[in-house]
Structures are given as C-alpha cells and as structure tokens.
Design brief:
A hairpin with a 5-residue loop joins strand 3 and strand 4. The protein is globular. By secondary structure, it is mainly beta. Strands 1-5-2-4-3-6 form a six-stranded mixed barrel. The longest helix has 7 residues. It contains one helix and six strands.
Length: about 90
Amino acid sequence: PTTAAPAKPAGGSQRGQATWYRWKAGNCAHNSLPKGTVVTVTNLANGKSTFCVVGDRGAFRSPTIIDLDASVFAQIAPLGAGRINVAISW
C-alpha cells in the first residue's frame, strides 16, 4: 500500500514570541506546523525577516510560538535579547 504525503499546511500566520536554542542551522521548532514547513519570521521591533524550516517540536506555550536555532535568531536579533516579539507566516 502507498501512503499519501502529508498535506502541506495552507498559508497562515501567527504573532507571539520567539526564543532560541542551539540545534541545527536554519531550523526551528513549532508545536503544530508539519516538519519541513518553511516559515518566514519577522522581528516586530526592527522589521528584520529571515526564514527557517520546521524540524523539531517545542514544549513551549503562549506567548512563545516558535523556537529558532541560534543561527536563525541571530539574523534578526542579538542572541542576548533572548526572547523577541515576532510575526511568522508560512
């Protein structure tokens, strides 16, 4: 039997907070988006944007919506910020 590929999520967006951790460059963790989803992340304080690929799950809850690898976070804010307000879209 063949199994269908998982459905790609319809385009969407969320606002909340992002944190960072050291994992795989270019990756991020989200609680519900399918792994492999490309997410655009925008820092609401400075307007800088980058993207990451969902490759992990987080054990976080509101207001945190996404956990970025340090390499991704550093593109839109200094790691010392720790937690930033973001908009994400996919």
